[in-house]
Structure formats: C-alpha cells, structure tokens
Amino acid sequence: MNMCAMKLPGRRLPPLKPVVLALLAAQAGPALAQPVPTQLPVRNATAPINATVGAAIGTPTNPVLPVTQQASATNRAVVEWASFNVGSAARVDFAQPNAQSVLLNRVVGGSGNSQIYGSLTANGRIFIVNPFGVYFGGTSQVNVGSLIASSLDLTPAMFIDNYQGFLTSPAIDLTGSGQFGVQTASDTAANKITAAQGGSVALVGGGFVSAGGNIDAPGGRISLTVAPAVRLVPVGQSGFVDMLVTTPGASGSATVGGVLNASSALAGTQGGQIIVQAPNVTTYFGEPGFSVLSADGPAGGGTITLGDNTTRAINVEPGSILRADATDNGNGGSIAARATFDSVPVSTGPIARSTFGVAEVYGTLQARGGPNGGNGGRIETSGTAVSTSLTIPGQVGTQVLAATLDARARAATGTAGTWTLDPFDVTITNAATIGVNGSFQPTGPGANVRAADIAAALDAGTSVEISTGTAGVGSAAGDITLAGQTAIVRSTGAAPTTLTLRAHGNVTMAAGSSIGVGEGVVGPFNVNLFSDLDGNGSGVVSLVGATITTVGGNVALSGGLDPATGF
To answer: pTM of the prediction?
Structure first.
C-alpha cells in the first residue's frame, strides 16, 4: 500500500470534497426515527400479485414476516407496501419459485424512506422501490439471490393495467427525481448485503447512492448508479440483473466508504464486476469509513469501472484499494476511472470548471496476473483533466498524495499489463501538482504527470501508455511534453516493459530530459514516441538535447494514423 496515503498521527488527510458534503446533507431527507426492533413492513390495501403475505411468525421479540411468491408464466410478482421498515430484531423471509424469480416490493404509502435494520432472506431476485429512498442500517443482514434497491420508481408503463408492463416486459424501467437515494451504513463490522454466486446487487438513486458496510456478490455484479432513469434486465436462467442508464444525470453523487466484494473463490472462475456510475464519484478512506473494491478470481481478474463520459468528477482518495487480480492462473482484470465529461468550448480564454471532467486518483489500484500463470491486466485513469499525484503544503509539513498502480504479470512467463493515462495536453515533470486548499484545482483540460509515478509503475513490472485526446478542446492541442531536466528512469526489474507516449499533436522531449534505465534493470525496456494520431500532418516527435537508453529494448519514433507505417 502507498504508505504516504495512510492516515498518520498528527497529519490530516484533505477535507471531504464538496460533493461528499452535499451527499451527507442530502441523506437527511425525509428519514424517520429508527424503527423499533420488532418493526415489520406494513402491506398496502391492494392485493399482491402472484404472492401472499402471511401473518407474522417467530416470537414477540424476534418476529418473522413470511412472503411467498407463486409460480407464474414469467415468475414475477408484486407486493405494494404502505411502509417497508424492518427493525433490528425482525426478519422478512421471501420464498420464491427459483433463483430467476423477481419479486417487486413497491412502497406507495408516502411515509418516508424505508429503513432496514433487521434481516431479509430470499432465494431469488428482490426489488425494493421507494421514491423516498432506502436505508440499510448498521445491523442489517441481507441474504438474497440478487437485490435491487432504488429511490427511482416504476415508469407508468410498468404499473398501469395492474402492473402488466412489469409482469410481462423483458426490461423493467425506473425513473424519478434527483432528491433522494439509497444508503448503506458505514459499519463494516456489522451490516452486510450478500447475493448468491453470480448474482447482482444494485443500489440506484436519483440523487445519491452511498455504500458503506459490506456488499458481496461473488463472481457477480455490484452496481452503484445515480441517474434520472435506468433500465433493468433480469438475465435468462441466471439470477443476474443487467442495468443500463437510459437518461444520464447532470448532478448527484455515488460514494463508496466500505467493502464492495465481487471476487470469486470458486476454482476456474473469474472475478465479477463493480460499476459505479454517477456525475460525481468518490471512494474515501478514514472517517466515516474506508473503501475496498475487489473483483479477484482464480482464473482471471474481473472489472472495476468508476465513471464514464457523463462523469464530472472522480476522487479515489488515498488509502482506497481497487483490486482485480488473478489469484491462481489467469490474466489480471481491468480497472478504469473515467471522468471524461467534456463540454469545453473551442477557446483560448478561461475555461469554466463545470465544462470538463476531473479524475483524481490517489489510491492503490491492482490488476495483476496470476502467480501460477497469466498476463498483467489493464489500469486506466482518464479524464478531461487528470491528477495521480498532488502536493499539499501544510503547517506541519508537505504531504504528497500519489497513486500506487500495479498491473504486473506475477508469473515468469506472463506479459506485463498496462497503465493508461488518457487526458488532453500532458506535461511530465519531476514535481507533483500543488494543491489549492487541499485539493486539485485544474484551470482547464490536461494533466501534469509526475515522472516518479511513471517510473514506479515500470519498476513494478507494469507498462505505461499516455495518450492525449484530440486537439480543439479549449486551448489544448493534444500534446505530450517531457519537461526539461526531467528523467523517467526504470531502476529495477527483469520483466520486459514498455513506455508509450501517444499524442494527437506533438511529442516533445525538452532539453536535458531523459528516458532510461538504471543499473538494476535486467529485462528489456521499450520506448515508443508516436505523434500526429489525427493523421493531419501537424504533429511531430521532437528531441532537443534529450536522451533515450534501453537494455536491449526497442525505440520507435513515428506518427500518423498508423504508427507502424507512419501514415
């Protein structure tokens, strides 16, 4: 782990970003007092469809509410609730025809958010839909085939005509306002949501999603999504539920402060998927929790994806761990942090921060090949502006936040994986960007990449590729510049690795800059400098008083649409 990212005595991590503070304020929505320990859900007067709600059983101090779903042509059922609250000593048991069954619990009473402090069990797919939000408290225990919890409601086409749309359509459409969301408490020692092997856990909010505690979907998918509208598709004969954002949002936050575990332990299987999709995404470390996102698997790592081309900000805070390793014999998985929202006008004037996405990545990201065979995986940090290291001046001393990235092949016969940085203009220097008020404050598209961060990845057996976006984004030209007197030095390791600088504009190594190897390097080190990937003839590769050295590696200087031919 990157030790400079740990919370040390007498030192403070940067304050929570405004999006996180806004999220915490939003959680104070229409929440009610914590339900009494014996509280059970209260059914609405409308008769259930393809299901029965029995009388409470168990004991007065530990009541159990049985809900039985009947088999039907599509094995879908609906229960409307006036309230869906479960006290810490209470339990709701869902008995369903099979793992592919879907039972919708729709709260229509308008009585505030659903608060779940007790237990839910089911053998199939459970949907909990409450437009006022869903909260899983610190004592909650959920064991289901798959779980969908949403503050988005069904679209009218889904519930008119006695829910015929929901009961018969292949896809299930949800929509709603951006005010409320879904939250799981940050107590990782107690509360837990567990899906079956290959199942899904999806938390869907119109305004926010906050995941603390423990969420497990071994070999399956964990999704945290903030958007005004989504489509859910229960998949075939599995218990899996696929999801597509049909209307992206312009605001809202997804925050991870606990453990998201999509790893699989079954021999011959790969890790699952973790997807966090929202306009603002944060994984944090320290109070009120910490983030571990894991998609390991014996036969290969899975995938972890934060953000997309609608994401305005990603912050992987120091101490956060994202891991998609092969644990036996297989290739490393893939990890991507993408804040590639772009509405920057073509202009040389000041650029508004709201017009471009910013990716800040200071945690530990691992996508390693298996120890008994396999290649390294892929790590991507993309944004219209990107920071992977940040210097924060302080009264006690200067703190440097820096990402640790490792996509090595751990087996001797494996090939190194790749760390890809994909901003617009890039400058590589010896120093990290200096923070303003404890945070990265870019004034436009682009990135300052610290040479030491590139060297650290190469030393770990990970190839590095830096590529720029097309020109014409604000004042960006899509150039990559290795600043004067800056050195990228691979200092150790035997595995072959490659450094690729791939620019839509120019690649420039300024006077006194160098790319090379130290005395401890045994394996070959390849260097590729590619310009003019637009193919318009305007980009060049320029070395001015600069040097490149390798250990039996190749050096390629080229350009054009196909660097192999130069055209």
So the answer is: 0.92
